[in-house]
Design a protein that fits this description.
It contains two helices and three strands; from the N terminus they run αβββα. The protein has 119 residues and is α+β, with helices and mostly antiparallel strands. The longest helix has 22 residues. The protein is flat and about 55 Å long.
């Protein structure tokens, strides 16, 4: 049976796309370019995340690299580091130390404002 005979209706023409303005559209977390949210956002389990990280580390081990996942004590933000296993040097970190320092400064500033408002 040819694939064309499976569809009972002829292919629908695609709607015309608006002219590009040269700007990129923002994409919401878990959404699409059009801003429509995904129907069912499925959160991975801890076991699935651990398995995925283990698989990534097996692949990275071949190039003497490893991923390290940590929680920054001050900002409570997840940090991900790509580390050279031979030297221990951090190749990449997300968020960067600079961004974490900015976040810490903002937190301290906000806490100072709250203390002034209470006084």
């Amino acid at each position: 049976m040819p694939i064309q005979s499976i569809h009972s209706s002829p292919a629908q023409p695609r709607p015309e796309q608006p002219a590009s303005t040269g700007r990129s559209l923002p994409v919401a977390a878990g959404g699409s370019v059009t801003g429509e949210p995904k129907n069912a956002a499925v959160q991975p389990t801890v076991a699935q995340l651990k398995s995925t990280v283990d698989n990534i580390n097996k692949i990275l081990k071949q190039s003497n690299n490893a991923l390290e996942f940590n929680m920054d004590a001050d900002t409570k933000k997840l940090t991900v580091k790509l580390v050279d296993t031979e030297t221990g040097d951090v190749i990449r970190q997300f968020p960067s130390e600079d961004m974490l320092a900015i976040s810490r400064s903002i937190d301290r500033f906000q806490q100072g404002l709250l203390l002034k408002q209470k006084a």
